[in-house]
Amino acid sequence: MRQNDPNNLRRPALRMLAGLLQPGTKAGVWTFARWTDNLVPVGDVDSAWKKRTQSVSEKISSPGQFTNIEDVLDKSSADWSGEPTTHARHLVLLTDGMVDVSKQAAENAQSRERIIGTLLPRLKAAGVKVHTIALSERADHALMKTLAGETGGWYQQVAQADELQRVFLRMFETVGKPDSVPLQDNRFVVDSSISEATVLVFSKPDAPPVVLRSPSGDEYTDSDLPAGVAWFRDQGYDLITVASPQKGEWRLQADIDPD
Description:
Elements lengths: L9 H11 L5 E7 L3 E9 L2 H10 L12 H8 L12 E7 L9 H21 L2 E7 L6 H11 L3 E3 L6 H13 L10 E4 L5 E7 L8 E3 L5 E2 L8 E6 L2 E7 L4 E6 L6
Parallel strand pairs: 3-4, 4-5
Antiparallel strand pairs: 1-2, 6-12, 7-11, 8-9, 8-12, 10-11
Helix pairs in contact: 1-6, 3-4, 4-5
């Protein structure tokens, strides 16, 4: 990862994805190299969980010399057994390498075989959909396609780390299928069926701060918020959540990145 994500753009991408997760979801975060670290323990997604994830995301780095995919798949799915009863199960794997647990090629091959022969059947039996993101040309694309394809998941190759935010967003929209309203000419309409509105704005580099205008004409920024509005600004994006939003047309004053 040191070469493929030198600026640690995984951090803001993770913070964005965490911010998009809906209440009622359970989630956790693991990092891995030779060993696996449960960076954020599995818990109910609420404001405290999101704040914790946003905070500890700064610990994401590239210190390891190995890529132990077997270990992270095993540990991140350890508490899943049997078919899911109330919640769909999704596992997102982001890596830029091959299975690499040892300097001995035979041990690497054996680990890869265990992933396909032991872990993959276990994940399928537990109803887990594995979504894989390859952050380099040299990643084990065959393995990642197999994991995604065999479980009904989603595979994507990413050429550069600065694409991660948009890839995570597309994955969230594809997998989570959130209710959404169209944004046209920086405007969107809220009706009485919407109890909470989440707005994600990708801005151009050096763009002025985003302004959100309510149907009644009130203007909000990340530094001037009323009760019921949460605003998280990060590298390249603003994530705004409005509880019990006013009905009518909302407007964004923003230099939105067309990509």
